[in-house]
Fold these 2 entries.
Entry 1:
Amino acid sequence: MGARLETKVFEDADALATAVADEFTALTEGLTHAPFTVALSGGSTPKKLYELLVNEPYRDRVRWKDVEFFFGDERSVPPDHPDSNYGMAKRALLDHVPSKAHRMAAEQDDVKTYARLLSERITERRDGIPVFDLVLLGMGDDGHTASLFPGTAALAEGRRWVVMNDVPQLHTRRMTLTYPVLNAADRVWALIAGAGKRAVVAECLAKAADPGDPPARPILGVRPTAGELVWFLDAAAAGSPAS
Ligand code: 6PG
């Protein structure tokens, strides 16, 4: 078992995104090294965060040139496709800031290039694995995170850092970081909002100490070995008022 799971509950998705924007900005203001490496997530809750960050009061406070962005997962579509995680992040965030960013070429199944990129750009290692300063995740209402979906092969990957994962329930395959990389990170923040997530959040919190192997709810396999783990929830997802 890795890090303790800390939960923070906010009134709604806007308050959640604002709290994450505040914490992200404070982290970059206190940077003692560069690049500060961040894996971005797809999904509607992270999108709110990206849109906030490119506006005041955050825009001029974040040390964008010291931040380097990567992705936690990508759909098998080109970057200009409406479903592309990179495309969403580009429009909401990357087009507006001077940070370096590296998309996953999932439509070409090109895991090797991404693994090489992680190896070259992220120099810190934990048990031989690149250490992200921050991984942002979302969670689907089936408990998937990144593109680690229930019952899929990537959940059992213990060696490779990046894989293509067949997702039969969506009739597709996606590129995703694996548990070894996610769990080597210094910080993992999961952004989870909306009443549709409430049942699975409750189930996950009840099973957090004994999630199964592989976990039926893939987000429960994300337990950084030495880093922090925070779930940012809104009241609707938490089923409890803001704390
Ligand atoms: C993706 C994501 C995925 C997402 C969740 C939650 O490519 O779909 O990376 O893991 O974060 O599905 O999405 P919402 O925030 O939109 O519910």
Entry 2:
Amino acid sequence: MKSRFGLQFSAFTRRLSRLVRSVRFRLMLWSLGIITLILAGFSVFIYTQQARDIQYDSQNRVAQMSRALFTVFHDSTVNLVSPDDSGNVVGNAPGPAAPIDRSRSPIFQSYDIAALVSPAGKVNQKVGPASDSDLAAVLKTWLNGGSSTGLLVTGAISPAASGAAAGQNYYFLLAPLPADWLSTGILVIGTPIDPNGRLPALALNLGLGSLAILLITLVGGYWLAGRVMRPVQTITRAAQKISETDLTRRINLGTRDELGELADTFDQMLGRLQSAFDRQRQFTADASHELRTPLTIIELETERALDRRRKPEEYQRALEVIQGENETMARLVTDLLTLARMDAGQAPLKREPLDLSDLALEIVERLQPLANHRQVTLVSGDLPEVPIQGDRQYLIQMLTNLVENALKYAGENDKTVTVETGCCQGDDPPRGWVRVIDNGPGIPPEHLPHLFDRFYRADKARGHLDDLSSSTSSGLGLAIVQWIAVAHGGGASVTSQVGKGSTFEVWLPLL
Ligand code: ADP
């Protein structure tokens, strides 16, 4: 068994790995990476620019100082060998080298170095924080590099040297004094490359600034990514709450961005699913209800027949009722099966070129005996050629349903049912149609919009118990008609007037 600590640890690692895999974390990491790159580039650019400026300044200073000192030595030489007012040359004997005088050049600072060194490395004069060994080392570097005038040498002042200059990097300019001057030797001028420590301060500032920006980016990026991902979490939570029995929930994100669009699409899909589920539920409830009625009738009829001894005619009547209800159930089950197959896509159409008029004529001939039985006149009207592409079996079933309905509901006593076909070449697309017209009782207008719905019956009173003639009614016939018409790319409609009759029309695209 795992210890409590072990359980806590595994929960923590699970949470951590979920965080690392999350889009929020990755978004934050990406923004952090990009800002780091930008900051690094920016800092390097600023730092190198500043370093170049500082270097340029110190080179300028060292050159200025060397010019000032050259003037000092030149002046002292000229003064020593130049003639006086009376034209006599005064003191042409070699005198002592002029002392390096910082006060002659105001740009000299306490950290600057000036020295006069012999080529052998002996320091004859020196001003500034450098030790003799520093100067000797600088001279050595200069001599090794080929002793051209004005060469710049970088070198560090030994940490032992005095004051703030200790350990600093210096620029040295070394220049030999001209041979004909009284002062001889190599002039060494040095100035710190970064006397005020501006570069380390800049590096520190850049580092701290970048760190602060990265911290803000980290926190801000995490917060922003969280905000962006919040709608996704809302969608996820809503989807988790939706169960297969309750599809009424909606996300209702209410934003107009891409995520809002996604949520709307999701809501629309839920709406479609819900109505499909509702239809399914309604269909099942209707089907059970429809089956329960004939089963109840059969049960009542058998109970009645068996509760005592009866005459043969009464048994005969009971059996007839049972047979009728059985027919109803058989028809209902067949229709249900047909619709279920159609809905499930298990009833593919086998399309072939057909003439709708031929089919109409075939139905009229086939249903003639039924019409005779009902004492209804079944005739064919105009039947011009109507070429279509369709499934013969399905189209026969469609026409049979329509004509059977007309015969069933037209009533008796000199009623007529007419089947006719025609073409509407001018329509887009060109259509062919078949109409089944009866002069029966008609259908009240309030029923017309629902007539093609499953299990819908306009006249519910005409139930099984009252009227045996309509005992095979299932309320699915017209739904099947519409399904077949739509599956062929067409449609079905009805017009009716109470007391005058009804016209059912199916249109199909012409071949
Ligand atoms: P049913 O099995 O009840 O005939 P249908 O879907 O074929 O189912 O028809 C639905 C309803 O439409 C019928 O119950 C009937 O009320 C009405 N109906 C259909 N055809 C006609 C018609 N020719 N005349 C009057 N009513 C009709």
